[in-house]
Amino acid sequence: MQLTRRVSWLLLAFGVWSWIIWPTFLKNIWKDPRSWNDGMTAFFTVHLLLTVASLAFGTAIGILGLRGVRAASAAVR
Asked: Which of 19, 27, 58, 75 has the greatest number of C-beta atoms within 10 Å?
């Protein structure tokens, strides 16, 4: 399967966006008083898992986009 250059850039941008947004989100959740009560609360645990999953998906999608961008630029040469 070949990705167009536009789709490849979109996937790469999504991966970068994920790495900008989700660590900031986790930092804000960390500061939330609902996150801690003699240890991690379920509120924090759920949001931590959401962040980890989103970063994993964002990384995988970003890698696909990067590979597509590289393939598109190699095809031009």
From this structure: 58
Can you give the residue range of the structural domain that contains 53?
Answer: 5-76
Question: pLDDT tens digits for 54-67?
Answer: 999 999 999 999 99
Who's near 7: CB < 8 A, 6+ residues apart? Answer: 65, 68
CA distance 6 to 3: 8
| Cα–Cα distance for residue pair 4/65, rounded to 1 Å | 10
Residue 59: both structure tokens together: 């990384």
Report the domain count for the chain.
1
